[in-house]
Amino acid sequence: MRHTLTKSLVPPAFALLTCIAGCDREAKNGQLPAAGPSAADSPVTEDERLSRLLLGSWESKDEESAVAETLFPDGTSTGTVTTALETGKPLVVSLRSTWRIEGKRIHERITESKPAVIPVGTTFADEIITLDGEKLVTRAEDGDLETRRRVTKQSGSDPADYPPLLHSGPNARSPAPEKH
């Protein structure tokens, strides 16, 4: 959905924010569920597949706004919308939402907006047109299309990605001395 804050006070990519559809597999009254097919044996529904693909961070940008959001497995999400006000100054809105997939639609409910430009409780239901590991295209209820791209961790940005130091371990090599 590609709305701007000045158009309708609804951020573009936050139609991704509402509770992952799933079934209740918790024990009832301290009893485990009766023996039967395991979750691994059950076929995955299209909505479950889409929910899994949505997990993670996404962004979209156009000439009017930029959106960054992260969807979590517990059905919550966080994000920011940045748009320019008529004064030329940027307005940054931080959002929290819940989300779920139902009938190939992303249902979202805003739970927090700072500043409060989007009322808590506002809901959206955008149709998923295309979703793969890198790209998401949705259609808002007003027909607007929006394309989002997955945000991936940049290689080398996390120290855990670095190889072990050359001088560690029993067969360590010292780095070559610097030449002056």
Care to give the gist of this entry?
The protein has 180 residues and is mainly beta. It has one domain (5-22, 43-152): Beta Barrel (Lipocalin), CATH 2.40.128. The chain has two helices and eight strands; from the N terminus they run ααββββββββ.
Explain this structure to me?
- The protein is mainly beta and 180 residues long.
- The protein has a single domain (5-22, 43-152), classed as Lipocalin, CATH 2.40.128.
- It has two helices and eight strands.
- It has helices at 5-8, 46-54; strands at 56-61, 65-71, 76-84, 90-102, 105-114, 123-131, 135-139, 145-150.
- β6 and β7 form a beta hairpin.
- The model is unreliable at 1-36 and 155-180 (pLDDT under 50).
SSE layout and pairing:
Layout: H1 5-8, H2 46-54, E1 56-61, E2 65-71, E3 76-84, E4 90-102, E5 105-114, E6 123-131, E7 135-139, E8 145-150
Antiparallel strand pairs: 1-2, 1-8, 2-3, 3-4, 4-5, 5-6, 6-7, 7-8
Give short descriptive properties of this protein.
180 residues, mainly beta, Lipocalin, eight-stranded antiparallel β-barrel, 7% helix, disordered N terminus, disordered C terminus
